[in-house]
Design a protein that fits this description.
- This protein has helices at residues 7-26, 31-38, 42-54, 126-137, 177-187, 199-210, 267-270, 272-281, 289-296, 300-321, 331-355, 374-395; strands at 29-30, 58-63, 73-77, 83-89, 100-106, 111-117, 146-153, 156-158, 163-165, 193-198, 217-223, 227-233, 236-237, 252-253, 264-265, 325-329, 364-367.
- The protein is of the alpha/beta class.
- The protein has 3 domains: 7-77, Winged helix-like DNA-binding domain superfamily/Winged helix DNA-binding domain (Arc Repressor Mutant, subunit A, Orthogonal Bundle), CATH 1.10.10.10; 81-202 and 375-393, ATPase, nucleotide binding domain (Nucleotidyltransferase, domain 5); 212-369, Nucleotidyltransferase, domain 5.
- Strands 6-5-4-7-10 form a 5-stranded mixed β-sheet, with helices on both faces. Strands 13-12-11-16-17 form a 5-stranded mixed β-sheet, sandwiched between helices. Strands 1-3-2 form a 3-stranded antiparallel β-sheet.
Length: 399
């Protein structure tokens, strides 16, 4: 019987990638534990660990303690084998808060550095902004080991034209945005893969990894300076043909308020500026949307009107998508907390009962459990997953 050429190399590549995959998933394992997980023989398992340590992808992280017999070496992924940088490009700066946030994590997932700062987007093109963020985040680290750069933007990224659509940040709507970033990073000796993603989609990834989304499918309604929606279907994000799925803020509506009879966009009803103005009408001082909501929570009338507006947005989502769970995210939801969430649930139940006993109230609504910067955390999670998959895939290919 003939054997395919390269079969030994292919088998070795598959075994080494499987070993690395288990190390990345579990963090720290002994040789025996790796043998149990991979099903490899003792000599083969030892050979795979030697290959990974020689390649700089695994290290000996310690030895087992206790017991009567000899101690065993504990292996772990080499955290310095690769770095991921997440960059959050925000559509607010100055009085509304820092317009740029960035962080770097190693292969083990540890965040090495993170920061926020204001940036003049009219003076720097996107490539310069990202290069600045990467070099500042990785100060003291080997830039040649930056393998993934994940950029979050307050807009829709169209992969076909490499263009960010519906974005208010100067310079970021130009065609060829990713190519321009890659070119600038390459000039700066950063040979990394670059991915651009909608900021709310990244927040949904953070919710999947660190928050309240313990279900197969969910929708995240983003309530911040901008209004957005992310759709997670079993861990996959629904982006749409041009990346514009979830741009709910542009939805035309007719919703009478005390100051306007419409029609206008949903952003004009429950977006950051609209809610800051609403809070001001109830005595809240000017500030960011999170500060405005927190300051106005003492007013029952404000909470009732805010809940009415959010419920309107939730109804729009539920009527089209019928998700099992809606997560309320963003600064508005974090500031309003369970009080606003409970008011939203009560408002929807009241409205549904008035229409029919089987109205659109049968959906779980929760407040985000990600208290940190969800966009940045989601960017790190997405970049880390891409990095790990890249390393595993590269090992699975025979030389």
């Amino acid at each position: 019987m003939t054997r395919p050429a390269g079969s030994a190399k292919l088998l070795r590549a598959i075994n080494s990638s499987a070993t690395l995959s288990h190390l990345l998933t579990n963090g720290r394992l002994t040789r025996g534990e790796l043998r149990d997980l991979t099903g490899l023989s003792k000599p083969t398992s030892s050979e795979m660990l030697r290959l990974l340590t020689d390649a700089g992808l695994a290290i000996v992280a310690g030895r087992t303690a206790g017991g009567l017999g000899p101690t065993a070496e504990i292996y772990a992924p080499n955290p310095d084998a690769g770095y991921v940088v997440a960059v959050s490009v925000r559509d607010t700066t100055g009085e509304e808060g820092p317009g740029l946030a960035y962080a770097v994590a190693d292969l083990a997932g540890e965040v090495r550095h993170r920061a926020e700062e204001s940036v003049d987007y009219t003076a720097l093109d996107p490539g310069e902004v990202v290069h600045h963020a990467v070099t500042r985040a990785c100060a003291g680290l080997d830039l040649s080991r930056v393998r993934q750069v994940q950029v979050g933007v307050a807009g829709s990224y169209d992969r076909r034209s490499d263009t960010v659509l519906q974005i208010d940040v100067p310079g970021w709507g130009r065609p060829g945005i990713t190519a321009a970033i890659v070119e600038r990073l390459t000039d700066g000796a950063v040979l990394a893969e670059v991915a651009v993603e909608n900021d709310v989609n990244l927040a949904a990834i953070a919710e999947r990894h660190h928050g309240a989304a313990a279900v197969e499918n969910f929708a995240m309604l983003w309530l911040d300076h901008g209004l957005g929606l992310a759709l997670d279907l079993g861990g996959a994000l629904l982006r749409g043909t041009k990346g514009s799925a979830g741009e709910i803020g542009y939805l035309p509506i007719f919703y009478p308020t005390r100051t306007s009879a419409g029609p206008f966009d949903l952003q004009d009803l429950v977006g950051g500026p609209a809610v800051v103005a609403l809070a001001a009408a109830y005595g809240s001082p000017a500030g960011t949307v999170g500060e405005a909501v927190a300051a106005a929570l003492s007013s029952d009338e404000f909470v009732a009107e805010l809940a009415r507006r959010i419920a309107y947005a939730v109804d729009t989502v539920v009527a089209v998508l019928d998700p099992p769970l809606v997560v309320l995210g963003g600064a508005m939801a974090q500031a309003g907390g369970d009080r606003v969430r409970d008011a939203v649930v009560a408002r929807r139940a009241e409205a549904a009962a008035a229409r029919s006993p089987h109205g659109m109230s049968e959906v779980d609504i929760v407040v985000t459990q990600v208290a940190d910067d969800a966009v940045l955390l989601g960017g790190l999670a997405a970049g880390l997953q891409a990095l790990r998959e890249s390393l595993i895939s590269s090992l699975a290919q025979p030389e």
